[in-house]
Structure prediction request, 84 residues.
Amino acid sequence: MPGRGIWAVESKSDISDDFVNALVIKVVTCEVENVLVGNVFGRKETRLLRLSAFGLEAMASGSMPLVSKNDVPGMIGALGTTPG
Prediction:
């Protein structure tokens, strides 16, 4: 997309780290680079498998808040009271 710094690249490889087919989305800004890896299991089950350095297995449906914070006392309580 011209002017916004957004582009898509399709690549294929015979060498697979973990999965035969995976969708990898990489977001790069001046401050940080984030990578999201997903896959489709069976015919319909979409899963998130990695977010940057964190491996996970989560169903990819609906909204999912993702929060990254430093490990400091009181952070869990503050986060829990934020939504209301």
